[in-house]
Amino acid sequence: MDFLVNDLSFHGQFLDLTSFRGAIERLMAIRQIARRFGRALHCHRGIAQAQVTPTMRMPQMVQGLTLNERRALLQWLTQHGPFWEDARNHEPGDWLEWNGNIVTDTAVGEAAWCCLNGIERALVSLIPSDWKFSPVPVDWVWDAGNRKSVDVVNHWDPIAIEAVLQAAPVPVASWDQLKALASTRCAHLAFTVDAFTPLNGHPFVSGAAQRLLFVLDTLNRFRSCFDVDGQRTPEGHEMYRDYFTGRKGDGGRGALFTDSSDDEKRTFETEMTFKHPADASKTLFCPWHGKVQTPLATCTLFLAGASRRAALRRVRWPEDHQAIALCNE
């Protein structure tokens, strides 16, 4: 889990330098705690110009800090980051709403979209502010008013966030760790020996790894939702509706897993055909696919029908296009 500074918690609420300094000290302490546990506290460059008091913005207010305090804060907010807008996951056209207010293009919207799509994110808010509550309920609205809700965890206390991180699993920090975790967690999926080999040599992308793990977990759960006759259980029908149906447009991004068109099936039949993991003399045709897309990497997971078989075949990076394979019968 990484953290995003809640830019909405800067809303001109500070009445004096003392309360502002205290809030910044807590924020910087949380940043150091996160780094100690191998996590990142992402900010937005716009915070460097945030409204801090009713009449003053950040550049004016920081002049009251000591040189070291001012330098540490501004270097983080303007130079070092990391800045979540550089690798944002939600799009300007996504409709994300909290308490009747649009939170698209904010840390609240970004964290909510990530949580809805299997990427662990939490907020860190300044106090005092109007944001001393958790969780933060956010709705993703699409397709003429359909809504999907998510609760985003919100932090503001350094001691509490340290306790959370002490209890949290060690974050995945490499493709090898992702392979080991996916192989352990996804017992209903059979991975080929070289399934993750194409990832070797490429820089690790935490967001892509988290999203890929979410997609594989979803498929793993779906694989268990069939009865002895091969028919979907009630949970299977619910998962099919949630992850295998839907369309793009009207604010929607479409289903997590989709079928290829008839033209694609004819044109890319070879690319969608895989060796059976348990019998090399057999093949599987996998026209269904699920995509993991982040600003730094795109992975495509191919499925044989919307039922039990899967093959993760492609991983595309900005500079090239490579293949990765996993299968399940």
Q: Your description of this structure?
A:
The chain is α+β, with helices and mostly antiparallel strands and 329 residues long. The protein folds into 2 domains: 166 residues, no CATH class; 154 residues, no CATH class. Helix content is 31%, strand content 22%. It is built from 9 helices and 18 strands. The strands form 5 sheets. Strands 11, 14, 15, 16, 17 and 18 form a 6-stranded antiparallel beta sheet that branches. A 4-stranded parallel beta sheet has the order 2-1-5-8. Strand 6 and strand 7 form a beta hairpin. 36% of the residues are buried. The C terminus is likely disordered.
Task: Provide the low-confidence segments as ranges.
Answer: 304-329
Order of helical and strand elements: EHEHHEEHEEEEHHHHEEEHEEEEEEE
Share of helix, binned: 25-40%
Provide the residue-averaged pLDDT: 84
Task: Label the overall shape.
Answer: elongated
Main beta sheet strand tally, sense and closure: 6 strands, antiparallel
Computed over alpha carbons, the radius of gyration is 22 Å
Relative strand content? 15-25%
User: How many domains comprise the coordinates?
Assistant: 2
Q: Tally of extended strands?
A: 18
H/I helix tally: 9
| End-to-end C-alpha gap | 32 Å
Which key terms come to mind for this protein?
329 residues, alpha+beta, 2 domains, 9 helices, 18 strands, elongated
Short précis:
With 329 residues, the chain is α+β, with helices and mostly antiparallel strands.
Secondary-structure map:
Elements: E1 2-5, H1 17-36, E2 41-42, H2 58-61, H3 67-80, E3 95-98, E4 101-102, H4 107-116, E5 121-124, E6 136-142, E7 146-152, E8 154-155, H5 158-167, H6 175-185, H7 206-223, H8 234-243, E9 248-249, E10 252-253, E11 257-259, H9 262-267, E12 273-275, E13 283-285, E14 288-293, E15 298-304, E16 309-317, E17 320-323, E18 327-328
Parallel strand pairs: 1-2, 1-5, 5-8
Antiparallel strand pairs: 3-4, 3-6, 6-7, 9-10, 11-14, 12-13, 14-15, 15-16, 16-17, 16-18
